[in-house]
Amino acid sequence: MSLGIREAAAELLSATEARAPLTDSWPELDVATAYAIQDEALRLRRERGETLVGVKLGLTSRAKQQRMGINEPLLGWLTDTMVLPAGQPVPRLIHPRAEPELVFVLDRRLAGPGVTAATALAAVSHVYGGIEIIDSRYTDYRFTLPDVVADNGSSASFSLGPVGLPPSSMDLSLEAALLEVDGQIVDTATGAAVQGHPAEALALAANALGARGLALEPGWLVLTGGLTDAVDLRPGSRVAAHFSHLGSVTLAG
Fold this sequence. Notes:
The protein is an alpha+beta fold and about 250 residues long.
C-alpha cells in the first residue's frame, strides 16, 4: 500500500537507512505529487526550527542525467542545517557522494515566468565554488524522477569555498573545476556543463518556481547542480574541488 503525502515526507525526512523507492509501492506517483511531498518535508523542517536559505538544482549536467537515467533537471529546498562550515567533518549519512558546484547568492527577488539567463544573472550579487554532499534515501541510488523529487533531490549538506566574486568578473561558462579524491584528480568540468551556462540553471529554477506561484528571494543561495558526476565520500577519504577563480573546498569523510 502506498504512503500519503504527509507520511511519505515524514518517512523520507527521518530515514537513517536506505529504503526502496516510493514508486515501487506507489507506481502512480507523479512529479507534481512528489513536489507536494518535498514541500511537506520543508514544512516539517521549518516546524522543528530550520530556516529556508535557498534552493538546489539537481541533474543539470548531462553527466549526472546519464548516470541516473533521468533526462530533466529538478529542484529541492535548502535550509540552514544543511550548511557545512569549512573544516567541519561530514555528518554520518547513509551513502554520501560529493560533487563540485557553482553557487549563486541573490541580491534581489527573481520571479518567473519569462526569466532569461541574462535577467537571472543580473539578480546575482556573488558566485562561489562549493561542494554538495548528496545522500539518497533509496537503496543504491535507484529512483525515478518522482522518487528523487520527493527526496528533495537527494539533499544532505553543502560547503562553500572561501572566494565570492561578482559574476561579471569572470566567464562562468569557462570557470573550471577539478575534482580530487585522496590526492588524485578524478574528473574535470567547466560551468558550461550546467545547462550550457549556470545562469541558464538559475533561470530554470526561477521559472519552475514561478509555475508553482513561488520565487527566488533576496539573500537566497542557489546551488546550480553538479558540474561532474558525483563521487563516493567514504570514511577516511578526502574530496576537494579546485576552481579557476573561486578557490578550493575540501571535505573529509
